[in-house]
Structures
1.
Amino acid sequence: MSAHQTSTMEKEVATLEKGALCCSWNYCGQRLAVGFVDGSVSIHDNLDSASSCSSKWKAHASSINNIVWLPPEFGDAIACISADGSMSLWEEVEDDTQPLKWKMCKLFESSNVTVLDLQFGVYSTSLKMVVAYSDGHVKVYELLDPLELNKWQLQAEFQNVIDSVLRFGKPSCAKASIAWNPRRGESQQSSFVLGFNSDLPQFNSSKIWEFEEDHQRWLPVAELALPGDKGDRVHAVAWAPNIGRPYEVIAVATCKGIAIWHVGLNPESDGRLSTEKVALLSGHDGEVWQLEWDVSGLTLASTGADGMVRLWQSNVNGVWHEEAALECNGMQQ
Amino acid sequence: MPGLASDPGDSLVPFLPDVRDPVVYPVRHGVNPPIFRVYVSWTRGNFLQVACLRPPAAEPAGGEEDGVSDEEIGGKVVEVKLGAGDEEISEAQRRRIAYGSVPAFALLQSRKNSLAAMSRMSASSIRTEWWEHVLEYSRHISDLLGNPMLPSSTVIEDPKMIMQPHEEPTTLKAAWQLMEIFYVDKLSSTWLPERLVDWLADYDSLLTETTIHSKVEGLQKRLSSLKVVVEDDPEYWEGMSGALAAGWLDAVVKLLRLHGSYQLEQLGSRETENGLVEAVAVLVSTMPRMRPHLPAGRLGQCYKTKPDFIKAWEKWRLHISRLDSSTFWVQCSHHQTREGLRNLLQIMLGNISNLRAATCHWMELFISHFLYIRPLTMGLDEFHSLAQKCMQLKSSSSSNGLMGLFIGILGENPEVVLAECSKTLGPWMVAHAMELLTVDNGHADILLHEERYSLGDISIEELHRLVYAQVLSSHPLTWQIAPTYLASCPKQGLGLLEILLYKQPVQHYQMILKNLEICRLYELENISSSIMKIAGTYHWKHGRKGSGVYWLQQARDEVRLNKIAQQLFECIGKSISDDSFKQWEGLIELLGSQVGTAGGLEFLHKYRDFKRSLQQVQDGSPVDAARQTMESLMQLMKNSSTPQRFWLPLLHDSVKLLNWKAQPLLTVSETNLLLNKLQELSMVKLHPDFCESNLPPQALSSVRLALATNLGRAVLEEC
């Protein structure tokens, strides 16, 4: 029994300028930020009606590889990751002295490592930013003043490995994927899942990191890989919204396919969360680019190098299957 | 290659080979291949936005070479609507149904809750009451799905108008009616076969392309356009036999009366023929029907009890047999009339081969059984086996969702019923029909209400309500009714509602108010505070400081309000002239009006007075101004609403006055009070939460020195 009845009807909402490299939607899906190969960024507004490009500016000297919106409690703001390894935060502001414009709040420069991915998480009132670097390091920053996006404090720095005592070589990471636990609320511990695509197997597997208040440190509480798959390079991760399930659902895409994991809500006696791989979905020929859960966490959308958008659902017996696919490669007008 | 769900090896879920291949839909985005990257986002409800980007090729050296316009775009973003459903119903009509069904659904849920609370009543009386509620609900929804036919008495009878024109039937209503007949309408369970005859009369045209309905309709068109001798036309007899097989007796009688033998000039020569036609018409119109009543204009004689009906039916069949074997047929010279009428008699006698020839679809053959062969058929298993038999006899009939639903109902298979509802009729139908399915069916009740771990501990019923609410939230016009359905989901409804509320845009005041009202109704304080914070930050950052502060106050967001107070303090410190103060005045007014714990900034008024007189002193005004400034300072320092973090900047501003050459401006007690405050500040400075102001590092010591000096001079003065 499928939850969605799938037939489609499409409507064009925006045309992107030449050189567009990446794009990202804001929390309500009405604004789209587009990153370009020449280092500029443009914002499209009113995606639900007549879309228009409201502003475009040069954010970096090199191309923009990724754009991430900040949570809306912190204004209309984006983080841009540039190919040169640096990243910058921009916010839209307007006051009596200046008209509406996008203003840079903060530039995180890099010397020899590059930023691969970053994601924001809101816990009680504070904003946290996890940044994954090409040397396999992870940094967690905290915003000090909720109205000023330039004041960040480094809260922690660690490597994406289970055993932090062992010394590993220096990995070279091509890609990282981070997803915060989307559940909001005062009582919730901060946690996120992170996987790498690197040349050192120990760094690759997706691990769930949780902030331990007592010792003010981040601990790995689960590893989302079966023993034989731990070195698999991770292409994408996505943490499903949980509107009341007694377990979390996380999707992890590796070269072997998209794995669906059930993760326990509470730690077991050893402090770890129970994990169960409930499905391995194959379909994309080649790399998976993006994983995106819908609001209810019932449907997973994936995009991949085969130019398809695939929609995955579980039936009432818990069997995951591909419900529908959208073909984007076709030659049509 | 189609995607497959594969077994992860150690998973508990076995690989099921019967998982069907996914449907592949081309997205018409208008970007020429190759596609370099595809991005997706679930924007509203179940709308998916898809961005297709072209490879960002390096700028061609020559600039504009081929100048193909397509090369100028970097990609397109399209919004894909999933689960669009059948095109039978327009968007506006769909919304009308969505809005119209809310009150009935909500009423039924509240009745369910109050019945559940009344445990003292006997189970059977609760069941009866519940069943009556569901029937009322079903009737309400049914009316919503389409208006009943116009009564024929309102139009002037046209003898050639065989079928009354009425609203185009919809599959949605046909399906709803079927479910009502079988699951809810117990009162008519004794005359179920006749209910199905009525159902077919309304919805025959939906079965397939060629139906009895389409034939009769075709015949009607021919009759109105052609001046032919009807009885010579084979379609006349064909249409009539179909109408009779389906039980449309009024149409049959009307058609018979169009027979040429009724023409005045022919009556004499075709007396016997006309007698036979009329005899058949009388038999048709006096057919006994096992039902309490007939709608106006419909023919037949109603019998409420089984013995009465059987007696009448046997008598009626005897008349038919007698007519069939009478000698008058020999005297009927018109071949088509003779054969046509005798075919009608055979249909009425329940001759299966005549019925089979007269019907197009197995459903029509099935219904004709109730009229002419087994009018007393009862029980779903009998219906089911009869349906199977008819399907074999009419194996060429195409199958559609409606028939799938019908077979599911007859097979007592709620899974099939739900799957067909979901596949053919969409999420609205599933969410609403669930109540009909479970009203008196223990199996369906367990199936739909059992909590399933694989669904995240929710039931199938809840799952489908969540899905429907998600569809509603896709459109700004229907999003407002989604909460009603989510509130009826015991486990995950409010969780989804929170996410949906959080994702609403905050630019419009009215929309925020509506969303906050929903939060209040369902006691979602956390999310209402998030909405107000988002709105507050949005307005603050977009130059609407007043709105920003208003919403942050509503959210009781002390952290942000304190930061704003700090910013304002610094602004006023810098701008003493009245003009620039005016821009802040309204804001300070606003902040001061609701003091509470969060951001009471009334002291900023006094601070303004203080700054103004300080300015006068600096402009070289007399000692009065200096005194007045110090009075303002004392008021500010004594006032408990002045936040501690502003003490030092205030004192630092006043150093010049503390060192006033002509005379000390503060008394001993006043100076002591300020020294105490300064002492307090030094203690606070040791606290880890202390927030350093932008003053020079020696500010504290210079203030202390000035105060000490002033104290000495004041002591001397007061001696």
2.
Amino acid sequence: MRPGQAIIAADNPMRKLIAFRVGRQEFSVDVTAVREIRGWTSATMLPKAPRYIRGVINLRGAVLPIVDFALRLGLPASEPTARNVIIVVQVGPKQIGILVDAVSDIITLAQSRIQPPPDIASETVSDFVRGLIALDGRMISLIALDLVLPPDSAVAA
Amino acid sequence: MALTVLTVDDSRTMRDMLKHSLIAAGFRVLQAEDGIDGLDVLKRETADVIVTDVNMPRLDGFGFIEALRRDAEKRMTPILVLTTEADPDKKSRAKAAGATGWIIKPFDPAKLVDAIRRVSA
Amino acid sequence: MTADPMAEIREVFFQECEDQISELEMGLLRMEIGQGDAETVNAVFRAVHSIKGGAGIFALDTLVRFAHGFETCLDRVRSGRLAIDPAGMALLLRSADALTDLVRAARNGEGAQDARAQALATELERLAAKGDAKPPSAPTLPRAAPASSPLRTWIIRFTPKAALYAHANETALLLRELSRLGTAEVEIDSSALPDLTEMDPEDAYLSWTVTLATHHDAATLRAVFDFVEDDCDLDIFERPDFAFQDWDNTAAAESAPQPMPAAAIETLPPHPVEAMAAQAESAGTVGATIRVDLDRVDRMIDLVGELVITEAMVSQRVLEAGLARTSAIAMALEELEALTREIQDSVMAIRAQPVRAVFQRIPRLVRELAAQTGKQVRLVTEGEGTEVDKTVIERIADPLTHMIRNAIDHGLESPEARIAAGKPAEGLVRLVALHRSGRIIIEVSDNGAGINRARVRQKAIDHGLINTDAPLTDDEIDNLIFLPGFSTASAVSDISGRGVGMDVVRRAVQAMGGRISIASKPGQGSTFTLSLPLTLAVLDGMVVKTADQTLIVPLASVLETLRPDGADIHPLDNRTAVLALRGGYVPIIDIADVLEFGSRIGQPEQGVALLVESEGGGRAILLVDEIQGQRQVVIKSIEANYRAVYGIAAATVMGDGHVALILDVDTIVSATRESSRLEAPRSLSQVF
């Protein structure tokens, strides 16, 4: 055990997050959920899908749905280019690609540095934001991805 | 050094069951599917005790015992025969072929282990 | 390691039971047609014996009891004490069925239906008792057994020590004594005899092996050697009965232990054990097998699928780079492609299984149906070894069962009707599997009355399926039976199933990318032919483009492609139109529109029309921009990472690495037909 680690109490573990940018906002997800990060390639459109589903791409033989994160949060979005980035994350048994503008940082910090989200009656906030992190004057939202895909029951008949 | 027991049975269920019981008793277990297979295993390995079924394809228990008893090296290896019921005819045939003793299926693992220890002593 | 090893062994037991039951069924069927040799009877006995043994471990008492009675009966057959007549054979077959049910009940932890098993057990007991009452029924026995104890064959191995001779005993006397007890055959082993120069005149070098057929027991034989017991190595053991049969093929299965045939004395047979070992070895080279976890095989199939796609991608890149097809790299790639395909085929072959697994269930079905209908049926199966992917095997069982039911219920006539028609009372149902051009063909044929076309036609008219004046060929009439809701039986039969007919079979077959057709001759019978892909992991598809999207249409549902003539397109309203086709009207479905891909380029007449047929039998025209070709595609799930998508069955990865969607023709056609207010008379859509 390295000496530095000894001072971290058991109830205050270290977290490692991947931060990314969408428009002018910064978000982060826990690094353990991230499978890989890759460049944007054009997706195959899915019929009758919500707008934020950009379609599906081939990830080494698996069919991967791509969620445009800006559209998912109801933010303004533009057509993705080769400079956009797909973060492949594991959500339960599924892997999905999150389309973002860029990966901005990899952050290691103590759990206690993550503040609870403000009590705002916003669906987007309550659905996705799990915490807020203030870092060098930036504000980074820690998000959860369980609700990023449309629910199965929403399949159009 | 643990005693090595060769079990010869065409039923995988029975082989698994024997293995499970014998390993639990601390024996080393070799397995064969029938008489031919059993002879084959014994070309490579040495068993301290042999437990064999009677009804098996290719070479049955009687033929297997007979073949072993002809082999100068293996004629002293104790052989226990597994039979389903106390059929006196089968028992005498097994005895004539050279079996050391027999156990009636479905066997009680404790009795089997006991019998193995008895004949191998 | 699992927490509960007993649960695991129990699972092994039930898996093994399945194998044993297959073995049992196959053996009994072979016995039924008179091909049951000694080994077959042994195998049948062993199957029941093993089930009983395993059941005992898990205290499955009902199963043990029934198996015991069954086994006793089979043991009598095996030892030749009981001859099996057709009635006895039927009992054995029914008992196998009952045993199957008892195993299943035990596996599911259900209480067994004791009554039937109990009744069968009583019958078995009665049958076995016959074997007890009769003396050994061995007409081939050369002479009647005078003694009450059975004739047995003993091997006496006898190696005198020098002491024996020293004690003034004579080998010859001992041998003479032995031969008085029965029929003896003597073999001398002189292999231990040294060179003359080294020979000790006081020592003993010879051993004798006497094969003795006698009614006496071992004790009597041993008594012969009373005086020399300490002066020789003596081995007396009985030669097992089966060894006779194995080395001497002329010995019949039913023969009880019998003496050495006189003719065999001159030339000594090879040692039984060695003979068997040799036999086993030659058998072993044919089919050594290993058990592999299915997940591993599936993982490999996935990987090979990737390999195929990656290879195609590389090839495409190379061509795009402008390299000539004759360049070294292009040629090497071609070789790689061939190898890749070969690997794919080989891997698919691992998962392939003989259709035997399904065919084995049929004899029982036929027996039950024959009993229910009072018809006499003989079943002939061919090509049981024909292999097909496991996924296909799992899914053909139901359609096949239905076809067999149909053949017996509707195809074959009653014995009286057959005799009246100058046919044998017993009807024939043939079940054949074979490979033909990369697909598996399964034929079910009967030699019954054939399709009554006048009746079929009338029924179709009555049901509003065709117009009264529809000009149909014989073939087209025959195929009417596949239409939904069509049933040829005047009364809904209990056997062919509660009003569902061949349309259900066709739907199931088409869902697998297969086709079904019928050929019938009045008075001579009908043949149903199933054509199925060898695997469900890949699919033959037509690659189409519409609204700039690439889609795959399963080839199995495409009947034909055409360029529609503008004059044949009749709009019904601003969204729907029909195409006039050979006297009927087929609804037109614009795929880009239905899937909301945006608008298709140009007018309907500028597109390409695919005449498709859904699983439900409904037909429609799918309108697309262009057809790019046909290819085999590896099926990929969309649901694994996403969810079900309307109108899409699955996806695949194309050569350029992009995902292409595979159209769910059935959903699209049926949804369109419902929503488009096209509920005009059904005849509109039935184009023949």
